[in-house]
Write a structure and sequence with these properties.
alpha+beta, homodimer, AB_hydrolase_fold (chains A, B), acyltransferase activity, transferring groups other than amino-acyl groups (chains A, B), eight-stranded mixed beta sheet, Immunoglobulin-like, signal (chains A, B)
């Protein structure tokens, strides 16, 4: 368990909201194009923050009597962006360089206090509701809200005797689920990262739209996605504990003994091993590895999205891996693979590519995907889900 | 339509977040009891804001270099609460008196800018995501999350040719809906107020838990609740227009021509007039009156929750009212009926009680409910739904 902790700690550090990456060299060479438009995540009617066609972000916040306003989001995730005051009491600033495509968390520091940008919507990350901004991606079409049949995202509340609570999960049901009364469906259990919750894969990840669009194009088999809260190491109800004290057992009990049976009882699932997958991003990937590898009678498909790797040693040390696992999917953002950043801090560097090649060479059905130009952020995970979904439940 | 506009404008003014009421006399006489606890709406791990057993709220915000921090929520909804700075850089303040039971919107003013309290979750009201606080109510049990069978809150995305968008709605399905494959259900279309959206009835109103608990107690017939966005007078996509330009037609088209047929096609509904209800709070009540009274071939049950009244003149002016309407439900918070506040500003005072008595005396099946000690806020509407639900679909 100690190795898992170290690797998980690395993932935690990497999920910090200031992780947005830029290309400093390109930035220094390029003039800022003045075609800024309101971010698509802005609250209704709000004009700021804005994003330009290069991926620069311009912030504007009203705080007439403030003495200092900063934004946590900046060049290379370092330092943030300092806003300057204008005569009308507004504070404005533009990032020093373009941000990576996709979704970024951020917050404001106003006179030494941490607040959200009133211009944008909030998204749960870093164990708080944070501001969010979206840099339009060249491939945004695959998670766009389009005129295709849409599945549902259903909030369920399931009893959890082990925690003495009624717990929340969201269940994506594909278009037509309600009509095909005799059809049963495979299920993907899909976990968020550290500091996030069961809302992340829909709100930040657009998991439902990714599936809707894949299904409309005939590119994947329809299946259910179940998303629940994976940080069960609360110090007290509602207060997440630190990672040092993380123990997989409470979450495993909720997932395997409570949620899976509830879903199989209340949805038309194919309730066997070969029609059940588990995947997760960052900490959710580590949870997947810890739970699924010890429960291969339950899961046939395993996905680690910026959440560790499966080595040939893992395969050999896991009874039944070769027979039972139909797919091992591992992915990262390309920026995570720069400079050995996929290894735990101070620990040995891990090369996910080498592990992926080794298990492939050993005949393990597997896929390895690298999201170009993105880091430990949701654009990597949107793309990873988009790549992984068509590979699931093909038997 | 002009009368409807004036009444709607009154409702709009009344929905302002600073509407929380207190009892000034009692407040002046009572010492503050130091048993403050974190609000149940706080973000995970956050200790402030806190509420005491009397309903006072204590706020604490970190902003070491700020010069002024105020909270919009205060005594009688006037003036707000001014926070004072401590040596550690925190700002603390307590409301001058106890607030009414239930949910209140609020925000901070920090150095002249409007921000949310980082301690609490956000709720969509006043066309922005606002901070929320919950004063525990003596009757909170009816909307508590309990160990009873729970229905689902399902996000659907339905095509809307009239607006050229894919629109969102939430559908509450009662426990057992998925099992009773041959059972069909009545439907309540339930609208939010001005500046709110389709999330309000679940997030602020706990509509799903109210129904779960009523059903567990055998006190209501199971039915679906459909909640969608009723502010269709956007100036441009995502930017709500003012009320002066409000036109019911766009929303009526979405509701009657697009959403109702979608729900009837995708859920097992009883798709006839006598199994369809429409109700709404504040502006949603006005929308209900404008739409349902002109479409009595579609709706048999009508609910106005702090959203106008049905007079005998309305009944007599509406062809078919006596034959087709199975229930007219009207409710208010008791504080709304103090000082003629239910009338439009500058216009004639309306006495909802007199209207309710007049239609009852004329033999119109109707119910009139007043929520004790609450104003134009969600505690009134939670109670109103709890009162109304058992009266629906009894034929």
């Amino acid at each position: 368990m100690k190795i898992a902790y170290a690797a998980m700690a690395a993932a935690m550090l990497a999920v910090h909201p200031a992780q947005a990456q830029t290309a400093p060299t390109a930035a220094a060479q390029t003039a800022i194009v003045e075609d800024f438009k309101p971010s698509t995540l802005n609250q209704p009617g709000q004009q700021f923050p804005q994003v330009n066609s290069q991926g620069y972000v311009r912030f504007r916040v009203m705080a007439p009597d403030a003495t200092a306003v900063k934004v946590s989001l900046g060049l290379g995730g370092r330092g943030g962006t300092t806003l300057a005051k204008a005569a009308d009491g507004s504070w404005t600033g533009t990032t020093e360089g373009p941000l990576d495509e996709g979704f970024h968390y951020y917050h404001l520091t106003i006179d030494g206090g941490t607040f959200n940008d009133p211009g944008t919507r909030n998204f749960y990350g870093s164990t708080r509701w944070e501001s969010g901004i979206e840099i339009p991606a060249h491939d945004a079409d695959f998670y766009a809200l389009k005129d295709v049949p849409h599945g549902r995202v259903e909030q369920i509340l399931f009893p959890s005797p082990s925690t003495g609570t009624q717990r929340r999960a969201f269940v994506y049901t594909p278009p037509g689920y309600e009509k095909n009364a005799s059809t049963r469906y495979p299920v993907l259990y899909l976990q968020h990262g550290w500091g996030e919750d069961e809302t992340a894969w829909s709100n930040q990840g657009h998991a439902n739209l990714i599936l809707d669009n894949l299904l409309a194009a005939g590119k994947t088999r329809p299946f259910l996605i179940v998303m629940t809260y994976g940080m069960t190491n609360d110090v007290r109800p509602g207060q997440p504990g630190g990672l040092a004290s993380f123990d997989i057992k409470p979450f495993q009990t909720v997932l395997l003994n409570e949620l899976v049976p509830y879903v199989d009882a209340h949805y038309r699932t194919l309730a066997d091993q070969k029609h059940r997958a588990m995947a997760g991003l960052s900490m959710g990937g580590f949870e997947t590895k810890l739970i699924a590898l010890k429960n291969l009678d339950r899961f046939a498909y395993i996905g680690l999205l910026s959440g560790g790797t499966i080595s040939l040693e893992d395969v050999n040390a896991t009874p039944g891996y070769r027979d039972k696992v139909k797919l091992t999917f591992v992915s990262f953002g390309s920026r995570e693979l720069e400079g050995g950043r996929s290894g735990p801090p101070g620990g040995p560097k891990v090369d996910p590519r080498a592990n992926a090649e080794a298990i492939k060479a050993a005949g393990i059905p597997s896929a390895f995907y690298v999201s170009p130009g993105t880091g430990h952020e949701f654009q990597t995970w949107r793309r990873s889900l988009h790549e992984m979904a068509p590979l699931l439940f093909r038997d």
